[in-house]
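Regression test case RT-17, inverse folding.

Input:
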């Protein structure tokens, strides 16, 4: 016979981010972010021509990724930071279903991450992931209303890179 004695909190520790960063290359991380855009575009019905722009600035050590895949609705913004959180189903015809890849990618690439997104003609929202958030015990994060960007667009700005880029880095696509 079993008897309940107490409950424990299973909230993951932020150290999880540090463990999922290891062994991540520039190419793998960027492919994860492209995969996210493709999944959003496919789930949105492929109603427009998909464009994904990738800028590697070697002089300033910045990576910028912009897509017009559909943006992230306000009610799904937590999916951008919660490891394992995803609204993708294994039954869908998409690539990513585990909710880890893009979170791992941005944290593996940079210490300072800004994600700006606009779903349809609704508001533009911004999330900033930085070292202070990663080092804190809290999972709460402010969401900012931001200057409007194009409809259905997501911008990912990565700075203070963990993986330095140089002139010899060329993406194979």
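Golden output:
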């Amino acid at each position: 016979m079993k008897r309940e004695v107490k409950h424990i909190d299973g909230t993951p520790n932020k150290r999880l981010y540090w463990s999922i960063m290891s062994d991540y290359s520039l190419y793998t991380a960027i492919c994860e972010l492209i995969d996210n855009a493709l999944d959003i575009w496919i789930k949105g019905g492929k109603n427009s021509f998909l464009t994904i722009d990738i800028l590697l600035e070697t002089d300033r050590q910045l990576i910028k990724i912009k897509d017009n895949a559909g943006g992230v609705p306000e009610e799904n913004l937590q999916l951008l930071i919660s490891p394992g959180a995803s609204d993708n189903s294994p039954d869908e015809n998409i690539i990513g279903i585990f909710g880890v890849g893009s979170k791992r990618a941005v944290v593996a690439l940079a210490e300072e991450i800004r994600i700006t997104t606009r779903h349809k003609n609704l508001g533009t929202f911004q999330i900033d992931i930085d070292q202070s958030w990663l080092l804190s015990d809290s999972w709460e994060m402010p969401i900012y209303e931001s200057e409007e960007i194009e409809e259905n667009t997501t911008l990912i700005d990565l700075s203070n890179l963990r993986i330095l880029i140089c002139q010899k880095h060329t993406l194979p696509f």
